[in-house]
Amino acid sequence: MTDGRASHILIVEDEPKLAAVLEAYLHLDGFSTTTLDDGHSVMPFIRSTPPALMLLDLMLPGRNGMDICRELRQFSALPVIILTARIDEIDRLLGLEIGADDYVCKPFSPREVVARVKAILRRATPAAVAMDGSTQAPRGLEVDEQFHHALLDGKELKLTPLELRLLALLMKSPGRIFSRDYLLSHLYADHRVVTDRTIDSHIKNLRRKLQGARPDSEPIASVYGVGYRLEI
């Protein structure tokens, strides 16, 4: 079934029983689906019929999920949830750092997968799934790195230079989870040696300033064991 792009989910999974279960649960929630069982067919399908979101297995015949995700991020911000039986932390972070929005470890509950799909699509904007990879700025948030100026809901945010760079980085993909290592490597051009606690401290200060402009909000979410994502 391939009608209705806004609610169309691409399932890339070579285990037929697992793919069928995912299809069944997604259909119950009103989604349409297409299932592909090899890596080589993914890019041609996405370019011709871009879905709303892709569930992507890492271990596929023909081409693995990591390579697919890397190529996808060169031209599209299509939301991606990785399905994987590889549970070590390095693989989890790598999956997120190449541009995946979330991951689910096998074995998993199909209900959990559907819940994750819904959560990501709620955060997504029309621009977030555009084929040119463009994204829409988070609601009420304005950042000008050149003139060191940031506003939230019209209120000025008095940010340090590093906090401003951090916010600008998170803004590039609202809703995407950024690992600490990724944030550190992109914040410090001189590649100085810093610890995870450094980024935690900057996030804490940035979150406090955002909440000062928008009380009772959770502008930056912590994803335990992985990193952070902007939820404005």
UniProtKB/TrEMBL annotation:
Residues 132-232 bind DNA. One of its GO terms (molecular function) is phosphorelay response regulator activity. Pfam families: Response_reg, Trans_reg_C. Residues 132-232 form the OmpR/PhoB-type domain. It comes from the Bacteria. Keywords: DNA-binding, Phosphoprotein. The keyword DNA-binding applies. The modification 4-aspartylphosphate is found at residue 57. Residues 8-121 form the Response regulatory domain. One of its GO terms (cellular component) is protein-DNA complex. One of its GO terms (biological process) is regulation of DNA-templated transcription. SUPFAM superfamilies: C-terminal effector domain of the bipartite response regulators, CheY-like. The keyword DNA-binding applies. PROSITE patterns: OMPR_PHOB, RESPONSE_REGULATORY. PANTHER family: REGULATOR OF RPOS, TRANSCRIPTIONAL REGULATORY PROTEIN BAER. This is Two-component system response regulator BaeR. It comes from Paraburkholderia lacunae.
